[in-house]
């Protein structure tokens, strides 16, 4: 059986059954797997992905969360945009974003883009509206009664 051309691989909806593949994809890119975050985003919104032709999980994925009334969202947030390291630089990020743009049907889109993703999102018509910083760590301080250690 021959392998289809990478450009012919379909973009498909993701479901909660795809959680292991989503967390593996995140781990592949050096992100924390954060299954709880994927679970929330797939349950509250939806995701799209492309299956890797070698059967090793997802080639790429992203989540979409609508804000506002279901019938007419005010905007859609794109999140968890990832392409497996072994497929990076081959146009799959562009392909996923173009799919999402077509899907949005005039609903404004928003996303947080890392430095390496900025040139692509700008080519696709996104503009910067500010900067964001992420911080992670373990909170310290006085214990709250009833909290677990």
Describe the protein's architecture and organization:
It is a single chain. The chain is an alpha+beta fold and 149 residues long. 26% of the residues lie in helices and 21% in strands. It contains four helices and five strands; from the N terminus they run βααβββαβα. It has a five-stranded mixed sheet with strand order 1-2-3-4-5, with helices on both faces. Strand 3 and strand 4 form a beta hairpin. The termini are far apart. The model has no long low-confidence stretch (mean pLDDT 87).
Furnish the topology, listing elements before pairings.
Layout: E1 11-14, H1 19-28, H2 35-44, E2 46-51, E3 58-67, E4 75-83, H3 92-104, E5 109-111, H4 118-123
Parallel strand pairs: 4-5
Antiparallel strand pairs: 1-2, 2-3, 3-4
Mean pLDDT: 87
Strand order in the largest sheet: 1-2-3-4-5
User: What characteristic shape results from the CA principal axes?
Assistant: globular
Give the C-alpha Rg: 17 Å
Count the beta strands. 5
> Main beta sheet: strand number and arrangement?
5 strands, mixed
**Helical run tally:** 4
Order of helices and strands: EHHEEEHEH
- Kindly state the percentage of residues in helix: 25-40%
Q: Unreliable stretches, pLDDT < 50, 5 or more residues?
A: none
Q: What percent strand?
A: 15-25%
What is the CA-CA span between the terminal residues? 54 Å
Structural class: alpha+beta
């Amino acid at each position: 059986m021959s392998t289809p051309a990478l450009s012919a691989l379909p973009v498909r909806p993701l479901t909660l059954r795809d959680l292991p593949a989503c967390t593996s994809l995140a781990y592949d890119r050096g992100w924390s797997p954060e299954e709880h975050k994927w679970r929330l985003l797939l349950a509250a919104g939806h995701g799209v992905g492309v299956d890797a032709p070698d059967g090793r999980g997802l080639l790429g994925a992203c989540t979409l969360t609508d804000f506002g009334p279901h019938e007419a969202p005010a905007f859609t947030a794109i999140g968890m945009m990832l392409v497996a390291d072994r497929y990076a630089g081959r146009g799959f990020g562009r392909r996923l974003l173009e799919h999402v743009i077509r899907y949005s049907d005039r609903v404004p889109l928003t996303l947080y883009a890392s430095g390496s993703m900025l040139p692509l999102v700008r080519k696709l018509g996104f503009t910067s509206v500010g900067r964001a910083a992420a911080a992670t760590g373990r909170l310290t301080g006085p214990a709250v009664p009833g909290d677990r250690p």
